Design the sequence.
């Protein structure tokens, strides 16, 4: 952890020649790392936040200013992923600056900013709002995650050439990290999560549901007769069918908290936090119909079998997430045995009822 006093040494000032040096403090978090995915429009995951924190920490230390990384949240308000060298009130003031700069491209620099009551920020002791701001928008690989890396100060000053270069370097490093993380976590054929990423995020959802007495639903999905189809029509047609299934699944499960993965071959997995068994069964049947429609363009009609299992209150279960996975998988094989192209719901956990004080399941439409 980097620590500095409020008054930088003359030697440090002489070397860096920055107009304003703000002490770098430990990271300030706006949300819990295990918060549910529907807290914000987009949620960074633990491994991504760790890497971005390191970049932003270095930016704050190198530039001598406070530094933060923001992503879009609900209602257009930004969510602070991390901030260094800043008070909570400083980060709150970035909300207005975020909205002001969203229509601008490239580097945005704002100096001598008024606060929300119109008072100029010229007093060195004033820390209620940022008086200097410089930020660059961050593009996500799928263009669905607007973000911004920025530096800011309570004292207005010009953006120095060195700090400007540090800001551009941090911007490039964050975009590269997001791209590498997406490539590591996603199946290149369908764009869905891969097995490793699904296991990591399901484990986090299980911990969160245990703390909040929440529910967790798992759908195990398998294409019917896919191997015969692949052998008869070739791998290109098989890949097209898998992409069609992946697209249908992304359309069917739109909540930020929903986890959708291809775990191997023609096997898919869906994890739905805070979803009732009834809603999950309805969604599964809707997905089956959507997949049939998406596969209608294939040379041979394919279908899909789905097994689902729901645990209404994770905190009451002494086992782990593998138990719910096993129940969903058993329901999938039952769907296969019944003739395929159908949804089967496991009744293994029906005796577990939601805790009255637990987190309510979100309604699905």
Sequence:
């Amino acid at each position: 952890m980097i620590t500095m006093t409020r008054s930088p040494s003359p030697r440090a000032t002489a070397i860096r020649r920055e107009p304003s040096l703000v002490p770098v403090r430990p990271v300030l978090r706006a949300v819990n790392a295990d918060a549910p995915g529907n807290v914000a429009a987009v949620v960074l995951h633990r491994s991504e936040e760790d890497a971005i924190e390191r970049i932003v920490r270095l930016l704050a230390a190198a530039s001598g200013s406070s530094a933060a990384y923001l992503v879009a949240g609900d209602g257009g308000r930004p969510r602070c992923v991390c901030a260094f060298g800043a008070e909570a009130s400083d980060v709150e003031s970035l909300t207005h600056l975020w909205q002001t700069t969203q229509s601008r491209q490239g580097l945005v620099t704002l100096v001598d900013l008024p606060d929300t009551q119109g008072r100029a920020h010229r007093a060195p002791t004033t820390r209620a709002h940022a008086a200097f701001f410089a930020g660059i928008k961050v593009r996500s690989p799928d263009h669905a995650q607007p973000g911004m890396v920025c530096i800011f100060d309570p004292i207005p000053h010009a953006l120095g050439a060195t700090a400007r270069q540090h800001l551009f370097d941090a911007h490039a490093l964050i975009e590269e990290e997001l791209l590498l993380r997406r490539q590591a976590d996603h199946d290149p054929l369908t764009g869905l999560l891969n097995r490793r990423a699904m296991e990591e995020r399901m484990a986090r959802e299980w911990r969160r549901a245990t703390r909040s007495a929440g529910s967790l639903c798992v759908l195990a999905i398998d294409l019917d007769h896919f191997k015969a189809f692949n052998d008869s029509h070739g791998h290109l047609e098989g890949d097209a069918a898998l992409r069609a299934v992946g697209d249908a699944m992304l359309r069917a499960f739109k909540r930020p908290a929903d986890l959708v993965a291809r775990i191997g071959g023609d096997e898919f997995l869906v994890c739905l936090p805070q979803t009732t068994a009834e809603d999950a069964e309805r969604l599964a049947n809707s997905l089956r119909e959507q997949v049939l429609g998406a596969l209608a363009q294939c040379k041979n009609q394919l279908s899909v079998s789905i097994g689902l299992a729901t645990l209404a209150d994770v905190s009451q279960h002494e086992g782990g997430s593998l138990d719910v996975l096993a129940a969903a998988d058993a329901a999938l094989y039952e769907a296969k045995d019944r003739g395929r192209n159908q949804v089967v719901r496991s009744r293994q956990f029906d005796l577990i009822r939601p805790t009255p004080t637990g987190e309510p399941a979100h309604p699905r439409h």
Q: What stands out?
A: The two ends are 46 Å apart (CA to CA). The chain has two domains: 10-185, 195-345. The chain has a mean pLDDT of 80. The longest strand covers residues 216-224.
